Amino acid sequence: MWLQAVLLPCVRLYLCGVKVLLYQLFNRAFALPALLKQNGKVAIVTGGSRGMGFETAKHLASLGMHVVIAGNESEEGSAAARKINEQGNEGKAEYVFLDLTSLKSVRQFVHAFQDRGLSLHVLVNNAGTMLVSEKQTEDGFELHFGLNYLGHFLLTNMLLDLLKRSGKHGCCSRIVNMSSATHFSGVLDISDLNRRICYSSHGAYSQSKLALVLFTYYLQECMTAGGFSVTVNAVDPGMVDTALYDNLWSLAQVLKRPVAKMLFRTPAEGASTAIYTALASEMEGVGGCYLYNGQKIQSSDISYDSELQVELWKKSCELVGLQDA
């Protein structure tokens, strides 16, 4: 049991990491093309106060968007918004508190946003955590599953009507879910999503990223079937030198530093594919894709399992208290 539940996910995850590093060794980071101005449009970026989220928020604001940085670090979030606004962008940034580990906080955030009467054209589900020791959210969910996936699942669903209203034919609203190559090593057990039987931080993280891809594909099917002008895509940023790696154990931290300097992407490089997916004219009306380094690629075989997509959707609705739509 221990070998299968703990050691195997660890080996799989690090093998994924090696493959990504080899790719990054021989391939340049995706360079963003010139993007059209987005004056008057509104975006929400979760985890937008640091790393890739900050770079995403900054770029969107530079193109004229009103960007809401949503996160649970008030001082850091306010400083990030202030820094973006001080750069004299055509758009603006603001910070609004959101704790994705609390379903109550997600609901409060959405209701407050809806009360302002703003449109919503872009939602970037960027926030996440990686390889933390076994912890639970306020609502009793395993932390990776609750923060990386389930909080974003509820946030997206509660904002969906607004995204539908804001999107138009030829100018779709866009949802961008930040996944990872680790989803290739992910295993999703509907009966044990909270990893109660035998905990593995590696397995839990991979599972949360796989869940985001499954969610992406199913939600896009729903949007297409309903004729709504909303696209949903998943993005893989590659291995990026951000605070996500702060949870590595000590020896791994030491080994990571020289490798990161040579092979990891910068936060700006890591954010480039998410920005491209959120704004590029080439992505207009294009949904249900998995993008890496600016290109549409195949995700894991299991991520295309339509039965698993439906199972996860229904279970997620049940867990967050939404009616299955």
Number of alpha- plus pi-helical segments: 9
Percent of residues in beta strands: 5-15%
Radius of gyration: 18 Å
**Multimerization status:** single chain
Helix content class: 40-55%
Our measurement of the CA-to-CA distance between the termini, rounded to an integer number of angstroms, reads 37 Å
Overall residue-averaged pLDDT value: 92
Structural class by SSE content: alpha/beta
Overall 3D shape: globular
Largest β-sheet summary = 8 strands, mixed
What topology does this entry show?
Elements (H helix, E strand, L loop, with lengths): L1 H25 L15 E5 L4 H12 L3 E6 L2 H13 L5 E6 L5 H13 L6 E4 L17 H24 L6 E6 L22 H26 L3 E7 L13 H14 L3 H13 L10 E3 L2 E3 L8 H15 L5
Parallel strand pairs: 1-2, 1-4, 2-3, 4-5, 5-6, 6-7
Antiparallel strand pairs: 7-8
Question: What brief labels describe this structure?
Answer:
single chain, 325 residues, alpha/beta, eight-stranded mixed sheet, 8 strands
Structure description:
Helices cover 48% and strands 12% of the residues. The chain is built from 9 helices and 8 strands. The longest helix has 26 residues. Helix 2 links the parallel strand 1 and strand 2. Helix 2 crosses helix 8. The chain has an 8-stranded mixed beta sheet with strand order 3-2-1-4-5-6-7-8, with helices on both faces. The radius of gyration is 18 Å and the shape is globular. With 325 residues, the protein is α/β, with parallel strands linked by helices.
